[in-house]
Write a structure and sequence with these properties.
Chain lengths: 465, 198
């Protein structure tokens, strides 16, 4: 039978199938962070059991960490307690733990690929919906709830019904100034925020083949924002080059054995999908969101849609525009902004900082803008310094913060104030996502850079040299 | 974690006719700092329910006293966004045992099933009718019959079947959780893991 990439990886990880029930799926890598794990560890304690495969489990602190003065004790007592709980749990269960201040610390979905924890053909889970990021390597990676974290800690398996399959093919080339973030926001705007629910997505076509691994991670990261369980891209030479030699990547004989498996990870010709979509890369513009879910995005030259042309309830749409303080039919260009956030598991990698720096180079940050530049990990932070980007950023009036999830979900102090507008490279523009009453415009790193230097929404293509 | 068994639920309901209610609305990130599963109901729909000075927003459905019950009825695509199980915990802790909608986000749906909140997916026609009947008459009761997989508006006798995986249904009726099942096949899992390439 013809199989898709997804079928090959999923079917190869089924320990057993429950009659009329879900599959028992074996998990190769389990990433753990401080927010969604403590209750799961408590469950293990109550059952008096240990983590089954500590060598397959990796813990890092990222969601609830400050992004300044990380060398000092964490001020917020609840956050400090949660971080301490992860450290104690990791120690007790002999799990590798990259806590605050550790040189390998960073956002879970940034450090996984950096250290070769993320591998093609692996099953990867984490108590975080953006686990889909790792699908860029041809892994089946998806977010889970805390009960499921407890399941995987205790048995290295998860009970899941097999999702349906969707393929999104985008051919041709992207225009200048159009980034992987724009591709993802474009797809979500077409499919809506629930358009891929129940499905696992494979991205195919020239646009994805030509993307860097960082770009592929951005796209797969945002799969959840159209409701998909995850997204994946078939591994190729670019993938293998990226992972080779990293700390946790298989070595020597093990590498050869893994390569035998990886070489077969592609969708067979004529394999069937439950749903297919086709787009043309040429038609994608730099994107920006105007509403309160990631599906509410438009090309920068377009206008905020009229309610009657929008699928779904008019009341919900109006509520969203009211929250944002925008009206139907307006252009986004020229809208004043107050904050810029560069970072997150979506766009907190070195390539994103390079792109941002390229735009702001030789210009000055607008006085009216507060900019938070938060690297995804210490490794990214170090590269920013070593590549000389930091000097350029400083010259333009920007500072660099320390790694973490930061203002993406505003669990720490990095909160956008009530009513203020932020152009963010993160993944969600939900009401209050970046702080109570905050208003988020999702965009690419270069759109964020253009906003940072002009103080308003600006087509980044006008600033590209 | 063990939870109360679910069999037949008869209750009034609370309507929330908004689409795409994401888990950040159900419980904002700043309330995820706990290390134990207690007290999340207090912050259910926090920013829709309270002003920034912590005074209740009078017009929000959980504050106006007109509606109450163990069933929450939400608009299409309920529970999208973050995987935080805290959203399902908050709903359970507040006192809801069932969420009715015409469409659920995957992770939220799984989380509910794992902790004893029953997600009932109905047709959009049935959902609209439920909203209008409850809004007209807040004492309208619904009966959710899990063994027979039906939802019924009692007064009008409007009835619809809903789907649930037979394995999950059995778990909910008996209050079982998946970990008990998996621990019983641990030897098979160990054998399987020895043959994996990664």
């Amino acid at each position: 039978m013809k199989k898709t990439l997804f079928d090959k990886v999923w079917d190869g990880h089924i320990v057993q199938q429950i009659n009329q029930g879900p599959d028992v799926l074996f998990i190769d890598r389990h990433m753990v962070h401080e927010v969604t794990s403590p209750v799961a560890f408590l469950g293990l304690k109550n059952r008096n059991i240990k983590v089954m495969c500590p060598e397959r489990t990796f813990a890092t602190a990222d969601h609830n960490t400050p992004t300044i003065n990380q060398h000092l004790p964490v001020q917020d007592p609840l956050s400090a307690k949660q971080l301490a709980a992860l450290e104690q749990n990791a120690k007790k269960h002999e799990i590798s733990y990259w806590g605050l201040g550790h040189e390998k610390n960073g956002i879970v979905h940034v450090v996984g690929p950096e250290y070769g924890i993320t591998l093609p053909g692996a099953t990867i889970v984490c108590g975080d919906s953006h686990t889909s990021t790792h699908g860029a390597f041809g892994a089946i990676a998806f977010g889970i709830g805390t009960s499921e974290v407890e399941m995987v800690l205790s048995t290295q398996c998860i009970l899941q019904p097999k999702p349906k399959k969707m393929r999104i093919t985008i051919k041709d080339e992207l225009q200048k100034g159009v980034t992987p973030k724009d591709v993802a926001l474009f797809i979500i705007s077409k499919l809506t925020t629930s358009g891929a629910t129940g499905h696992f997505v494979e991205y195919a076509g020239d646009v994805f083949t030509n993307m860097t691994m960082e770009g592929r991670m951005t796209v797969c990261n945002l799969s959840i924002e159209m409701g998909a369980r995850g997204g994946m891209i078939a591994p190729d030479e670019k993938t293998f080059d990226f992972i080779k030699g990293r700390e946790f990547t298989p070595k020597e004989m093990d590498w050869d054995k893994a390569m035998d498996y990886w070489q077969d990870l592609y969708t067979d010709e004529n394999a069937e999908f439950d749903k297919e979509f086709f787009f043309d890369g040429n038609e994608i513009e730099p994107m920006i969101t105007f509403g309160t879910n990631p599906g509410m995005g438009i090309g920068i030259s377009e206008f905020i849609p009229i309610a009657e042309n929008v699928e779904g309830g008019n009341a919900t749409y109006q509520k969203s525009l009211n929250y944002m303080g925008y009206n139907e039919g307006e252009t986004m260009i020229g809208k004043e902004i107050d904050f810029v956030f560069l970072g997150s598991c979506t766009n907190g990698r070195i390539e994103d900082f390079r792109a941002f720096t390229e735009i702001v180079k030789g210009k000055k940050k607008a006085d009216s803008v507060t900019a938070w530049l938060v690297p995804g990990s210490h490794k990214v932070e170090k590269a920013i310094e070593e590549e000389g980007l930091l000097d350029i950023l400083k010259e333009s009036g920007f500072e660099l913060r320390e790694p973490g999830c930061s203002a993406c979900l505003a669990m720490n102090e990095d909160k956008v104030p009530m009513g203020k507008y932020a152009v963010s490279t993160s993944n969600r523009n939900f009401e209050g996502r970046q702080g109570p009453g905050s208003r988020t415009l999702l965009a690419s790193p270069i759109m964020a850079a253009a906003a940072a230097v002009t103080g308003k929404v600006t087509d980044p293509r006008t600033l590209i040299n | 974690m063990a939870y109360d068994k679910f069999d037949v639920l008869n209750s009034t309901a609370v309507p929330l006719p908004i689409e795409n209610i994401d888990t950040d609305q159900i419980i904002p990130a700043r309330f995820l700092k706990a290390t134990e599963r207690i007290g999340f109901g207090d912050n259910l729909f926090r920013d829709w329910r309270y002003n920034s000075d912590n005074s209740p927003k009078e017009d929000f459905v959980l504050n106006n006293g007109t509606y109450n019950g163990k069933i929450l009825v939400g608009g299409k695509n309920f529970g999208s966004g973050s995987s935080r199980e805290h959203a399902a915990w908050a709903i359970y802790d507040y006192g809801f045992r069932c969420v009715v909608s015409s469409f659920f986000a995957d992770i939220f749906r799984n989380n509910c099933l794992n902790i004893g909140v029953l997600p009932v997916k109905v047709s959009s026609v049935f959902l609209e009718k439920t909203f209008s009947l409850i809004e007209e008459n807040p004492t309208e009761t619904l009966t959710i019959d899990l063994p027979n997989q039906t939802i019924c508006i009692d007064r009008t006798n409007d009835l619809e079947q809903f789907e649930i995986n037979p394995y999950k249904k059995n778990n909910m009726i008996n209050g079982f959780d998946d970990i008990d099942y998996l621990l019983n096949i641990k030897e098979n899992i160990k054998t399987f893991s020895e043959g994996t390439p990664l």
